[in-house]
Amino acid sequence: MPEWATISIRGELVEEIKGLLKRSGRYRSISEFVAESIRLRLEELARKGELVPEPPKMARPTSSVPVTPVSLTAPQITRNTRGYINVQLQRAEQIWWVLVRLFGDLAHKDTKVDAQLARELRNCRTMINFVASHTCPECDIELANERLPDLQRSLERVKRDLVATAICVCDDYAKDWMIELDRAERGELGEIPPSGPRFIPGLPRNNTISWTRITLSKPVPKERVEEISRVLGVTVKAENSLHFVVRGEKKTVKKAVEMLYQLQ
Fold first, then answer.
1. Positive or negative CA dihedral for 238, 239, 240, 246?
2. Percentage of residues in the chain with pLDDT exceeding 90?
3. DSSP codes, 127-155
4. Dmax of the chain from CA atoms?
5. Which of 34, 106, 122, 156 could form a disulfide with 111 if both were Cys (CB 3.0 to 4.6 A apart)?
6. Which residues are paired to 248 by β-bridges?
7. Sequence-distant (≥ 6) Cβ neighbours of residue 154 within 8 angstroms
């Protein structure tokens, strides 16, 4: 996730910026206006030559000691890497859950919200399930490592747009949600988001969700069933020891059914 810093701006300037946002409609938030203003000012100073140039780098002294070439081979995926991905995935899921609740609350307040954000939230849920399904010890962790940045960027885009919409409702309203998002980004969210797809009020219906009922030839360990449900992000409901209902994304439902049959 991008790093953020807090800066202090005089109150009268903030009020002028708010007025500009309402009049122009070009900027979605105060932070977006401030960021662009700073960038443009830096470019102006650079054109005028007023920026202090960086000191020249000192040339390395020659040495008769042979230099060992650095290997360009990608580092091996370790347990620490897997642990890092799991931590980031947990935080991403908490951020997603706060954004889903914010989206639903804005819709409940009859606030105009871009429908594209609903689709992006569903795509984020799909990416969360994908990354989670590739973090088990037997899975290809490199795929999870590749998709994790995409997930984080998508969540950041949705967060930016939803917070900008919340600011238009009320400053205090947006502040409360930003505090909740900060807690989620630190992994301190008290409420644990649900694992697997579920109905979310205010979001359009998703035709990629499916369910199926299967019958096994013999009982399977409950712990393994729960592990499949958690890893693939699907819901596995046991009607009895041999009959199960699997619900979730079509592709993950098919994979879950295959794994359940393999447990027999």
1. negative
2. 9
3. HHHHHHTT-STTS-HHHHHHHHHHHHHHH
4. 78
5. 106
6. 210
7. 120, 123, 124, 127
Nearest to 264 by CA among 248, 244, 246: 244
Is residue 10 very low, low, confident or very high in pLDDT (cuts 50, 70, 90)?
Answer: confident
Q: Which two tokens stand for residue 58?
A: 């000192």
From the list 94, 98, 104, the residue with the least C-alpha distance to 204 is 104
* CA 247/CA 120 separation, integer angstroms: 21
Which amino acid makes up residue 70?
V
Q: pTM of the prediction?
A: 0.48
Strand pairing category for 235-238 and 209-215: unpaired
pLDDT in tens, 165-205: 889 888 788 899 999 898 888 888 765 555 444 434 444 44
Q: What is the pLDDT of residues 203-259, one digit of tens each?
A: 444 455 677 888 888 888 888 888 888 888 888 888 888 888 888 888 888 888 888
H-state helical runs in 109-249: 115-132, 141-169, 171-185, 222-232
Confidence of residue 156 (pLDDT cuts 50, 70, 90): very high
Buried b or exposed e, range 43-81, using 16+ CB within 10 angstroms: eeeeeeeeeeeeeeeeeeeeeeeeeeeeeeeeeeeeeee
Give every CB contact of residue 245 below 8 A, 6+ residues apart in sequence.
211, 212, 213, 235, 236, 237, 239
Report whether pLDDT(40) > 60: yes
Spatial strand order of the sheet with 243-249 comes to: 209-215, 243-249, 235-238
Q: What is the pLDDT of residue 162?
A: 92
